[in-house]
Amino acid sequence: MTKLLQPKEFIQLIDENADIIIPISNGEPHRLLDILEEHYKQLENVKVHQLLALRERDYINGKMKGHLSHISYFLSAATRKAFWEGHVELIPNVFQEMYYLLRKTAKRPMVIATASPMDEHGYFSLGTNADYAADFIGEVPFVLEVNKHMPRTFGKNQIHISQIAGFIENDQILTEEKSPVITDKDRKIAAYIADDIQDGDTLQIGIGAIPNAVMKMLKDRRHLGIHTEMLTDGIMDLVEAGAVDGMKKSTHKGKIIATFAFGTQRLYDFIDNNPSVEFLPVRVVNSAYEIAKEDHMVSINATTEVDLYGQCASETVAGRYYSSSGGQADFARGVRLSKYGKGYVCMHSTVKNDTISRIKLHLGEGSVVTTSKNYVDNIVTEYGIARLHGKSLSERAKALISIAHPKFRDELTQEAKEFGLIE
What are the residue boundaries of the Acetyl-CoA hydrolase/transferase C-terminal domain, all occurrences included (predicted)? Predict the structure, then answer.
């Protein structure tokens, strides 16, 4: 008996009111989703749960309501417009808790995911992913989309043929994430952060031009470790430069730890059959207590807006939802528990050609807090670092005003005085 499925057989596996769980980014199984859409009239109230969808689809845009709908946990280019138009639900979360959240809310769960081909021992690999999906292995039915282009990776993302309901085959090239252009402002911000990073530190680095600029400045460091939710090309470049070997880490010594990878084909080739890279479930990678086991943990992330308390709004733009919380809050908490931990939240000081300050007395209308004032450590702009941890509210306000664009400093100072935040 083979577990290779025909489209009709796959559809027959899906119950009424089923909750289909899909991994992040390249874990998304394109052909299986095609089949769901092609046969959507046979489905009844099926919900697809996913963080960071890759491809815009008819069901995401509300064209299959009552049959197939999308629930997002992090908006992307594929879901953002549909959410704004009311076709997609967005559930607040922090990345670390995704497995627990889905286990609690999904009544008839099934995972569909892309995987590498089966090895001689009967195991598939979830490849670029572990995220929240890997924790469901052995607990719920899995249907795999086997793709020869998916790298075979190590860690806790292996699934045996006995643990799946079936599979299809679809050899589709993986989606690549190109590096953004790095500006002079990005380099100035990155230089402040890079100066704080020492040999032997363990890094979590987010996505974007500033984190990429930081990594380019760390190639002369030695014995750096990696414990990050997202593995990127910049980290691979540090390995190849000899800056990363993980030998000073307290946990997973010598290993690069991540929960998913997203980058160029060069990165996917790098992780293929690479025993130095391990993909672990996000409930482990992003656990504050797991992060804190690394005494010299450094976290680098980005935000869009900061108030004078130090609250970071990182998931809204101009008061409108743009993404979601992701893992920023997880690592902000983790570095606070780390013995010598350091957290950096970075941004350009202004937007729209220096006409709007990103540092404000109060967050803008509609903006939501991603990283609490209680967990924020350092805020960085092109004008320096505001070191906030352990500082009073008035000290925080003064520090943040000092790294605002000069044209807004007097205005911010006056507002802070009128509000009674500083004398």
Answer: 263-416
Whether 220 shows a pLDDT value over 80: the answer reads: yes
**What residues have CB less than 8 Å from 121, skipping those under 6 apart?**
none
- Alpha-carbon torsion 152, 153, 154, 159, what sign? negative
Q: Taking a C-beta distance cutoff of 8 angstroms, is the pair 341, 297 a contact?
A: yes
| pLDDT > 90: percent of the chain | 97
pLDDT (mean) for 317-327: 94
Task: State how far the Cα of 252 lies from the Cα of 239, in Å rounded to an integer.
Answer: 16
Distance CA 36, CA 67 (A): 10
- How far apart CA 337 and CA 339 sit, in angstroms, is 6
- Beta strand pairing status for 260-261 and 109-115? unpaired
Residues in the chain, overall count: 423
Q: Indicate which residue of 229, 290, 294, 305 is catalytic.
A: 229
Instruction: Give the CA distances from residue 231 to residues 115, 177, 246, in Å, rounded to whole numbers and listed in that order.
Output: 18, 11, 15
Burial group, residue 101, by CB count within 10 angstroms (0-12, 13-18, 19+):
middle
Q: Determine the Cα–Cα distance for residues 299 and 281; give it in Å rounded to an integer.
A: 19
* Percent share of the chain, pLDDT over 70: 100
Amino acid 1: pLDDT: 53
Residues 53 and 28 sit within 8 Å (Cβ to Cβ):
yes
pLDDT digits 0-9 by tens, 49-74: 999 999 999 999 999 999 999 999 99
- 382 counts as catalytic: no
Q: Is 353 exposed, middle or buried (0-12, 13-18, 19+ CB in 10 A)?
A: exposed
H or E stretch at 287: none
Give, as one character, the DSSP assignment of residue 214.
H
**DSSP three-state, residue 275:** coil
What was the pLDDT predicted at 2? 80
Pairing of strands 312-313, 305-307: antiparallel
Q: Under 8 Å CB-to-CB from 303, ≥6 apart: which residues?
A: 312, 313, 314, 328, 345, 346, 347, 370, 371, 379
Beta bridge partners of 231: 261
Q: Is 236 exposed, middle or buried (0-12, 13-18, 19+ CB in 10 A)?
A: buried
pTM confidence score: 0.96
The helix or strand, by DSSP H or E, that contains position 411, with its residue range, turns out to be helix 406-418
- Residue 378, classed as helix, strand or coil, is strand
